[in-house]
Amino acid sequence: MTGERKKMGIDPYERRWMIVSIALLVAFAATVGIAGFAMGFDLPGQDERVDPQTVATTPPWDEPGVREISPGVYEAYVIAQAWSFSPREIVVPKGAEVTIYVTSIDLQHGFKITDTNVNMQVVPGEVSRLRYTFDELGEFPYLCTEYCGRGHAAMFGQVRVVSQEDYEASQAEAAAADAGTEEGQ
Ligand code: CUA
Predict the structure, then answer these.
(1) Which of 95, 105, 149, 183 is deepest in the core (most CB within 10 A)?
(2) Arithmetic mean of pLDDT over the chain
(3) Would 2 be classed as within a structural domain?
């Protein structure tokens, strides 16, 4: 019975299931698309190549750390090496949208910020990039997720998210300290 039907074409029942599965695939693709674009998830990007030998002395990598590039928008440059991250601390105000760039000057490392979706591989010669908005106050440790030798567990640092007032106060303090150094010269 079934054999005869198959010879004549697709079973109507089977056909219905094919339509359902295609509809499901379209729905899944749409979900991923919406999550990716509308909700602002950012896939790890590897958009730039650098020379691991010279990157640490090449701007902006020669001064690792975070800077404000426009109001509320920051970029952070992090250098990974066995067995530390430079800088060890990134301080931003609550609500900061931070694009994080990480590269390694030696081995392959990982960079994951606890309690966020920031998690990327760090490969010598490549720049890994991820954007994240820090909407909660607190300390968010970052650590190496790729086993890289005996100091692996010691590779960590933290993002500290502070209130706008505390952030401005700390910036003013840093500026005053800089001015003090210059006066002393
Ligand atoms: Cu670097 Cu593990």
Answers:
(1) 105
(2) 87
(3) no
